[in-house]
From TrEMBL, chain A:
It is found in: Cytoplasmic vesicle membrane; Endomembrane system; Golgi apparatus. Pfam families: Adaptin_N, Alpha_adaptinC2. The keyword Protein transport applies. The keyword Methyltransferase does not apply. Its main location: membrane. The lineage of its organism: Eukaryota, Metazoa, Ecdysozoa, Arthropoda, Hexapoda. This is AP-1 complex subunit gamma. InterPro entries: Adaptor_Complx_Large_Subunit, AP1_complex_gsu, ARM-like, ARM-type_fold, Clathrin/coatomer_adapt-like_N, Clathrin_a/b/g-adaptin_app_Ig, Clathrin_app_Ig-like_sf, GAE_dom. Keywords: Cytoplasmic vesicle, Golgi apparatus, Membrane, Protein transport, Transport. GO terms for biological process: intracellular protein transport; vesicle-mediated transport. SUPFAM superfamilies: ARM repeat (SSF48371), Clathrin adaptor appendage domain (SSF49348). Residues 795-907 form the GAE domain.
UniProtKB/TrEMBL annotation, chain B:
It is a peripheral membrane protein. This is AP complex subunit sigma. Transmembrane segments: none annotated. It holds the Pfam family Clat_adaptor_s. Residues 1-139 form the AP complex mu/sigma subunit domain. The gene is LOC117654205. Adaptor protein complex 1 (AP-1) is a heterotetramer composed of two large adaptins (gamma-type subunit AP1G1 and beta-type subunit AP1B1), a medium adaptin (mu-type subunit AP1M1 or AP1M2) and a small adaptin (sigma-type subunit AP1S1 or AP1S2 or AP1S3). GO terms for cellular component: AP-1 adaptor complex; clathrin-coated pit. GO terms for molecular function: clathrin adaptor activity. It is found in: Cytoplasmic vesicle membrane; Golgi apparatus; Membrane, Clathrin-coated pit. The keyword DNA-binding does not apply. GO terms for biological process: intracellular protein transport.
Length: 912, 156
C-alpha cells in the first residue's frame, strides 16, 4: 500500500501520457490498480503509523518527503469526498500542521466533519477548526451555522464542543450571531454546559462589549451556584464586565442590593439577591473554613483557582469604594493570616490578596500586613516568589514608601541574587527607594553592585546613579566622589552623558576642583585603557586645573597627610603614555591633546617638551588628531603670544534647567553649549566641521556655526557692502591663524565679544564684517551673517513656544526682514532632559502659497541642557495667515522619537 | 491567557493552543522566538519572562516545557498552578505521562486541555470532573466505532 502512494505522487498522469509511451502504460496500470484498490476498500495509513514514520525520518529532507507524500494522498482523498476516512486524514493533517507544514487545505474538511452526525468526527472536526481556521469571512459564516446547530444538540458533549470552539475562535461577527444562543445556554440546567456558556459569554464580551447587556440577567444567578466550575466561570465573566464598563460595575453593586431591598418572599430569596460583595465574601469564607474536600484540594488549600478569582473581583469592586472596601477588610485580613505559605499555592493566594489590599481603600494596618507579606516573600527560597515580591513592591512603592523602605536591606540583598531577572527587578526597585535620607547608604550598595554587575546592567545602572546623585546629593564633595566612582566602576560602559555631567559639575564647583584633579590623577596613574570616559574627564580636569595639582598640596580623603604632589615630568610621562597607547580611543586622545596644550600655560617650565609632544601629532594618521596637532603647534610657534589668552580657564558652567526666554539665559545656554562642544568632541562629526572646529571651540564658539555661515552664503546673495571675497575658505583662514596681519584683530574682536556677549547683544560689532564672526560665539537668535544687512534685529521680536514635549522645547523667535513679505524665524531647540538627544531632525511644511527656505541646523546633537538652532525664511506674497506643520525626530536614550505638531498662532503683524 | 505552547527540550513543538487571533505566520514567528529564548535560559532562573507586551510563564516537566503567555496584570503564580494542574490531568489520564504519550495522542492532550480551559480561562477546578468528561466522551467515540470488519476504523 505504501508503495502505491509513492508512484502516485511522481507526476500528474496527463503529462506522462502525452510524452512517454512507457509512462502511458504505467499510467493505465495505475488507474487499473487504483480501481481495484478502491473496490477492496483500502484503509489509509493510521495516524500513529504516520507519526512513527515521521519520527523515523533521519534527516529533515527525509521528513519532508514523508510528509509531502502523505499530504498529496490526503489531498486526493479530500477531492474524492472520501467520508469514511476523513476523520483520520484530518487528524493526520493536524499533526503535520503542528510540525509547521501548510495545512489550510483541510479547513473545509473540518467543517464537513463538524456537520457529520458521528461524535468522533465532530470531536476531530472542532479540534481542526480551532487549529486551522483564521478569521476568513467565508469559512466563518459556514462554521457559524454549524455551531448554531450543535449549540442546540441534545448531547451535552456536542454542545460542549461547540461552546469550546466558539470560546477559542469567536470573531466579532460570530459573537453577534451566537450571543443569544450562548445566553440561553447560560441558563441551562446542566452545569457542564452552564460553565462553558459563561466563559463563552466572557469571550463574546471581550470581542464585542456592546453585547454585555444581553448577559447581565443570566450572569447574576451564576454566583448562587454550588458547583465550583460554574462559580469560577461566573466570577470570571463578572470581572471582565466590571473591569471594562464602569456602568456595569455600578449595576452589579446596585442591582444586587436593589433586589434585596425589594424583599421578595423569603422562600424565593437566595444568595443571588444578596449584595455582591457580602456574597463573594461569604463564598470565600466558606472556602477557607471548609474542611478538607478532596475534589478541590491543592496541597492543603481549598480551590486556589476560585479563591484567586474572587479576590481579583473583590479588588475591582473595592477600588475607590470605601463602603465596599470596608466590607471586605476582614476577609482579606483572614486570608492574609490564615493561608498556608509552605507551597506555591498558598503564596499564589497571598500574592493576589496583597494586590487586592493595595488596590482597595483598605485599613492602614492591612496595608502594613500586605507589605510585610511581600517582605517575607523576599526572603523566600523560591525565585518565582521573590520575583513576584519585587515586582509588586515596585508597583506599591509610590503608595506607601515608608512601608517598603522597611524592607530596604532585603531588597538590596536581592541585588546579589544569582538570577538575573531578580537582580533586574531589585535594581529598579532600589532606584525607586532612594531619597535624600538614605542616599548615602543606598548609593554605597548600588556602587558595589555596579562594580560587580554584568556588562548589560552597567550602562543603565550608571546613568540611573548619576540621575539619583544629582537629585539627592547631600553636598558637592559627595556628588563628585559618587560620579568618580561610577566612572571607575562602570569603565567603558558609561554613557556619554555621564562624562559631560561630571565635567559640568567639576567646572561648577570651584572649591572642589583641586581635590577632584588630585583624585583623578590618582586614577590616571593606573591603567585606564578600559575606562575611556574616566580618562576623558581626568584629562579635561587636569588640563583646566592642573596648576592646583602641580604647585599646591592637595589632600585626598580625610587624612590631611595623604597629599598628592605631582611634578611636571611625572604628569607628562603619563600624558605621553595616554597619547600613544593604542588602547585609547581617538576621542580620548583628542581630550588628552587639548589638555596637554592647555597645560603648556599652566606649567612653569617644560613647555618645550609639550611642544614636541604636540608637534608629533602633526603627522598623525588620524586626520582629526593631525589637524589638532598642526593647529596647536602654531600656538607654540608664530602665534605663541596668543596662547595664554586662548587657553585660559573655562568659566564655570551653569546648568540651566528652565529657560524663561530672557536673553541673559539664552546666552548662558550658549556658553554651556559652547563649552560642552569641547567635551563632546564627537568623532562622528564630519571631518570638515571638526577641522575648523578646534580653534573656534577654543574661542568659545560653537563649531557648527561655520556650516551655517557656509550655507547662508550659498543661498543668500552677498549683501552690498560686504566684501564678496569672504568666502568660506577665507573665513576659515581668518580663524586658522594663517593670515598674519588680520588675525590678531579678529582674535581681539573675539575676545572682546566673549567678554561682552553676556551683557549686550546689539553690540555695534555686529555691523562689522569681522565682528559678525563674534556672533558665531554666541548663539543669539540672530542668524550669523544676516545681521550684516538683510535683517534688522528688533528688540521686541516675539518668542513663541512652538513645541514642548518629552523634555524637548522648541522656541521660535520671529524677526522681520527687509525683504518684502518675508519673515525670518530663528528656531532654537532646547534639551531639558538629562540625556543626550542625537540625530535631531526638524522639518517644516507650510501651505503652497508660502515659500519656505531652511538653513542648515547648528547641529544634530543636543546635549542635556544644550540647544540647537536653525534659521527659517518664509516668504508670504499673498499675505495669508501662516500655518505650519512640524515634524520632529531624534534619538534619546536608545529610543527613536518621532512627533508631529502644528503651529497656527503666528502673530499676523509679522508681514510687511 | 493568550496562548499555551508545549515543546520539547530539542525545541520541537508538541502542542499549541491560541486564544488570540493571529495570522499563521505570526504564530510561527512567536513560537520560534519563544522556544529559543526559553531554551537559552538556565535552569536556576525564575519561571517568568517579560516578553514584548505579554508575560511568559513557563515550567519544565521532564523533557517537556509548558509555556503560557498571560496578560501583564494576570497572576503569574496561578498560571504555574494551572500548568501543574494540566500536567496532573495528563498524568492521570495516560498513567504517568511521558513526552511520547503526548506525541502519539496529541489530540487527547488537546481534548484534556479543552476541558480544563475555555477561551483561555479556567473552567473546571475539579480534576475528577475533567477526567469524567473526557472518559464519557471517549466512551461515546468507542461506542460508535464499528467492530469486526472495519477493525481499524478509529484514528488508529
Amino acid at each position: 500500500m505504501w508503495l502505491y502512494f509513492e508512484e502516485c505522487s511522481v507526476l500528474p498522469p496527463e503529462q506522462n501520457r502525452r510524452f512517454n509511451p512507457a509512462f502511458n502504460m504505467a499510467a493505465i496500470k495505475q488507474v487499473f490498480n487504483e480501481a481495484v484498490e478502491r473496490v477492496r476498500m483500502p484503509t489509509p495509513m493510521r495516524l500513529r503509523d504516520l507519526i512513527r514514520q515521521i519520527r523515523a525520518a533521519r534527516t529533515a529532507t527525509e521528513e519532508r518527503e514523508v510528509i509531502n507524500k502523505e499530504c498529496a494522498y490526503i489531498r486526493s482523498t479530500f477531492r474524492e469526498e472520501d467520508s469514511a476516512w476523513r476523520c483520520r486524514n484530518v487528524a493526520k493533517l493536524l499533526y503535520i500542521h503542528m510540525l509547521g507544514y501548510p495545512a489550510h487545505f483541510g479547513q473545509l474538511e473540518c467543517l464537513k466533519l463538524i456537520a457529520s452526525p458521528r461524535f468522533t468526527d465532530k470531536r476531530i472536526g472542532y479540534l481542526g477548526a480551532m487549529l486551522l481556521l483564521d478569521e476568513r469571512q467565508d469559512v466563518h459564516l459556514l462554521i457559524t451555522n454549524c455551531l448554531k446547530n450543535d449549540l442546540n444538540s441534545s448531547t451535552q458533549f456536542v454542545v460542549g464542543l461547540a461552546l469550546c470552539t466558539l470560546g477559542a475562535i469567536a470573531s466579532p461577527e460570530m459573537s453577534r450571531d451566537l450571543a443569544a444562543e450562548v445566553e440561553r445556554l447560560m441558563k441551562s440546567p446542566n452545569a457542564y454546559i452552564r460553565k462553558k456558556a459563561a466563559l463563552c459569554a466572557y469571550r463574546i464580551v471581550l470581542k464585542v462589549p456592546e453585547l454585555m447587556e444581553i448577559f447581565l440577567p443570566a450572569t447574576r444567578s451564576l454566583l448562587s451556584e454550588k458547583n465550583h466550575g460554574v462559580l469560577i466561570t461566573g466570577v470570571t465573566l463578572i470581572t471582565e464586565m466590571c473591569e471594562h464598563s464602569p456602568d456595569t460595575l455600578q449595576h452589579f453593586k446596585k442591582n444586587f442590593s436593589v433586589v434585596l431591598g425589594k424583599g421578595k418572599k423569603s422562600s424565593f430569596k437566595d444568595c443571588s439577591q444578596e449584595e455582591i460583595v457580602p456574597n463573594l465574601v461569604r463564598i470565600l469564607k466558606n472556602l477557607i473554613l471548609a474542611g478538607y474536600s478532596p475534589e478541590h484540594d491543592v496541597s492543603g488549600v481549598s480551590d486556589p483557582f476560585l479563591q484567586v478569582k474572587i479576590l481579583r473581583l473583590l479588588r475591582i469592586l473595592g477600588r475607590n469604594d470605601a463602603e465596599a472596601s470596608e466590607a471586605m477588610n476582614d476577609i482579606l485580613a483572614q486570608v492574609a493570616t490564615n493561608t498556608e505559605t509552605s507551597k506555591n499555592v498558598g503564596n499564589t493566594i497571598l500574592y493576589e490578596t496583597v494586590l487586592s489590599i493595595m488596590d482597595i481603600k483598605s485599613e492602614s494596618g492591612l496595608r502594613v500586613l500586605a507589605v510585610n507579606i511581600l517582605g517575607r516573600f523576599l526572603l523566600n527560597n523560591d525565585k518565582n516568589i521573590r520575583y513576584v515580591a519585587l515586582n509588586t513592591l515596585l508597583k506599591t512603592v509610590h503608595l506607601d514608601t515608608s512601608a517598603v523602605q522597611r524592607h530596604r536591606t532585603t531588597i538590596l540583598e536581592c541585588l546579589k541574587d544569582p538570577d538575573v531577572s531578580i537582580r533586574r527587578r531589585a535594581l529598579e526597585l532600589s532606584f525607586a527607594l532612594i531619597n535624600s535620607n538614605n542616599v548615602r547608604t543606598m548609593m554605597k550598595e548600588l556602587l558595589l553592585f555596579l562594580e560587580r554587575s554584568d556588562p548589560e546592567f552597567k550602562a543603565q545602572c550608571s546613568s540611573s546613579i548619576v540621575l539619583a546623585a544629582e537629585r539627592y546629593a547631600p553636598n558637592k564633595r559627595w556628588h563628585l566622589d559618587t560620579l568618580l566612582r561610577v566612572l571607575i566602576a562602570a569603565g567603558n560602559y558609561v554613557r556619554d552623558d555621564v562624562v559631560s555631567c561630571t565635567i559640568q559639575l567639576v567646572s561648577d564647583s570651584v572649591d572642589q576642583q583641586g581635590y577632584v584633579s588630585a583624585q583623578l590623577w590618582r586614577a590616571l596613574e593606573q591603567d585606564t585603557s578600559d575606562r575611556q570616559p574616566l580618562t576623558q574627564v581626568a584629562t579635561w580636569c587636569i588640563g583646566e586645573y592642573g596648576d592646583a595639582l602641580l604647585y599646591s598640596d592637595v589632600s585626598v580623603g580625610d587624612d590631611p597627610s595623604d597629599i598628592v604632589r605631582v611634578s611636571e615630568d611625572e604628569l607628562l610621562d603619563v600624558y605621553q603614555r595616554l597619547l600613544w597607547s593604542p588602547q585609547n580611543t581617538i576621542v580620548t586622545k583628542q581630550y588628552t591633546l587639548l589638555s596637554l596644550t592647555k597645560l603648556s600655560t599652566r606649567f612653569r617650565s617644560n613647555v618645550e617638551r609639550i611642544r614636541q609632544m604636540v608637534q608629533q601629532f602633526g603627522s598623525h594618521l588620524h586626520i582629526e588628531l593631525q589637524q589638532r596637532g598642526v593647529e596647536f603647534t602654531q600656538l607654540f610657534n608664530s602665534h605663541a603670544h596668543l596662547r595664554p589668552a586662548l587657553l585660559e580657564r573655562m568659566p564655570p558652567m551653569e546648568v540651566v534647567r528652565r529657560d524663561n526666554g530672557s536673553q541673559q539665559q539664552q546666552v548662558q545656554h550658549s556658553t554651556v553649549n559652547g563649552v560642552l562642544d569641547i567635551a563632546d568632541v564627537n568623532s562622528e562629526e564630519p571631518a570638515v566641521n571638526s577641522d575648523s572646529n578646534a580653534l573656534l571651540v577654543l574661542l568659545g564658539g560653537s563649531e557648527p556655526s561655520i556650516v551655517d555661515t557656509e550655507t547662508e552664503q550659498q543661498t543668500a546673495k552677498p549683501p552690498a557692502g560686504v566684501p564678496a571675497t569672504t568666502d568660506n575658505q577665507d573665513l576659515l583662514d581668518l580663524l586658522g591663524l594663517d593670515i598674519g596681519g588680520s588675525a590678531p584683530v579678529a582674535v581681539n574682536n573675539m575676545n572682546m565679544n566673549n567678554n561682552v556677549h553676556s551683557t549686550n547683544n546689539n553690540n555695534p560689532l555686529l555691523l562689522d564684517p569681522l565682528g559678525s564672526l563674534g556672533s558665531l560665539s554666541t548663539s543669539t537668535p540672530l542668524p550669523p551673517l544676516s545681521g550684516l544687512s538683510s535683517i534688522t534685529p528688533s528688540l521686541d521680536s516675539p518668542s513663541l513656544v512652538a513645541y514642548e514635549k518629552n523634555g524637548l522645547r522648541i522656541m521660535f523667535t520671529l524677526e522681520r526682514s527687509d525683504a518684502p513679505s518675508t519673515i525670518c524665524i530663528a528656531m532654537a531647540a532646547y534639551n531639558e532632559t538629562a540625556t543626550l538627544m542625537s540625530d535631531f531632525l526638524f522639518q517644516v511644511a507650510v501651505p503652497k502659497t508660502f515659500q519656505l527656505q531652511m538653513m542648515s541646523p547648528s547641529g544634530t546633537t543636543i546635549p542635556p541642557a544644550g540647544s540647537v538652532t536653525q534659521q527659517l525664511r518664509i516668504q508670504n506674497p499673498s499675505k495669508g495667515a501662516l500655518r505650519m506643520r512640524m515634524r520632529i525626530s531624534y534619538s534619546s536614550g536608545g529610543a527613536t522619537i518621532q512627533d508631529q505638531a502644528e503651529m497656527n498662532n503666528f502673530p499676523s503683524e509679522g508681514w510687511q | 491567557m493568550q496562548f499555551m505552547l508545549l515543546f520539547s527540550r530539542q525545541g520541537k513543538l508538541r502542542l499549541q493552543k491560541w486564544y488570540v487571533a493571529h495570522p499563521d505566520k505570526l504564530k510561527k514567528k512567536i513560537t520560534r522566538e519563544l522556544i529559543t529564548t526559553i531554551l537559552a535560559r538556565k535552569p536556576k532562573m525564575c519561571s517568568f519572562l517579560e516578553w514584548k507586551d505579554v508575560k511568559i510563564v513557563y515550567k519544565r516537566y521532564a523533557s517537556l516545557y509548558f509555556c503560557c503567555a498571560i496578560e501583564q496584570d494576570a497572576n503569574e503564580l496561578l498560571t504555574l498552578e494551572i500548568i501543574h494542574r494540566y500536567v496532573e490531568l495528563l498524568d492521570k489520564y495516560f498513567g504517568s505521562v511521558c513526552e511520547l504519550d503526548i506525541i502519539f495522542n496529541f489530540e487527547k492532550a488537546y481534548f484534556i486541555l479543552d476541558e480544563l480551559l475555555l477561551g483561555g480561562e479556567i473552567q473546571e477546578t475539579s480534576k475528577k470532573n475533567v477526567l469524567k468528561a473526557i472518559a464519557a466522551q471517549d466512551l461515546l467515540q468507542e461506542e460508535e466505532t464499528p467492530q469486526g470488519f472495519f477493525e481499524d476504523h478509529g484514528l488508529g
